[in-house]
Amino acid sequence: MSEPTNPFVSSSGRRATCMEMLQLFLDGEVTTEQREYFLSHMDHCMPCFKSYQVDMAIKQLLKDRCCGDGAPVDLVAQIKAQIIQKDS
Amino acid sequence: MDEGVRQVYTEAEKQEIFEKEFLPHINAMYNFGYRLTLERDDAKDLVQDTYFKAYRFIESFQKGTNAKAWLFRILKNSFINDYRKKTKEPSKVDYQEVETYYNSDDVHRQITPDLRVDSLKDMIGDEISNALNSLDVDFRTVIILCDLEGFKYEEMAKILDIPIGTVRSRLHRARQLLKDKLSEYAKSMGYKNT
Ligand SMILES: [Zn+2]
Fold this sequence. Notes:
Number of domains of chain A: 1
Mean pLDDT of chain B: 86
Order of helices and strands of chain A: HHHH
CATH topology of the largest domain in chain B: Arc Repressor Mutant, subunit A
Helix content of chain A: 55-70%
Strand content of chain B: under 5%
Number of strands of chain A: 0
Number of strands of chain B: 0
Mean pLDDT of chain A: 89
CATH architecture of the largest domain in chain B: Orthogonal Bundle
Low-confidence stretches of chain A: none
Shape of chain B: elongated
Largest interface: A-B, 37 and 48 residues
Order of helices and strands of chain B: HHHHHHHHHHH
Low-confidence stretches of chain B: 107-112
Structural class of chain A: mainly alpha
Number of domains of chain B: 2
Oligomer: heterodimer
Bound molecules: zinc ion
Strand content of chain A: under 5%
Distance between the termini of chain A: 73 Å
Number of helices of chain A: 4
CATH class of the largest domain in chain B: Mainly Alpha
């Protein structure tokens, strides 16, 4: 019944909420212990499990669709020209 | 740019750093500039200006360290100091409210998504991009840095000159707002909330 020692407890002794743990996990800001703890937490916490699916899908969607088509082709040339000009 | 220690580089070394460490980030920089200003011409100016500054202050940059974070920080500062001042867009974010929101114990209201993975799968057009662009620039910024560019919280704190705790709460709030927006799209696409 009781979970293993919670590695998400802050130095002030406060336990992290579900959404705080989820966020750290989602962004890869967890230690190995925290990672394992949260994975087993998700086995019995439906809100975390559901949110994780959604959050992960959004993160992926952002990465796939919002990174743009790249800088205009002439931009690098313009940057270089500006530097050479002001450098002399 | 204010790391303190100044490096000494020959002209050839400067060129090499510029070519091999700065220029490879041009696409990410341009996208960052575009997502901040939402104008392609302004993005171009901002990136050009950033690279110019990066070259001028190249001696503040230590070869082989995190060039991307360094460049992003210069771009962000140029945006705030030059661009934002010019357009006089004030920040509309109430940070006090952000902190309170994040620290409240109302977990289930916040964590239970009214958005389903199914509905996200159908967002194959500009929905996500428009949703991102609709957020206040400070919220937009943390999502760009974290989700698009994969910066760690510590790097984000340095780029934005804010504490890590603020990075976390701002990011949390930003995602909440993004989800609200996506829920609206999902509803208009005929999905019912579960
Ligand atoms: Zn949970």
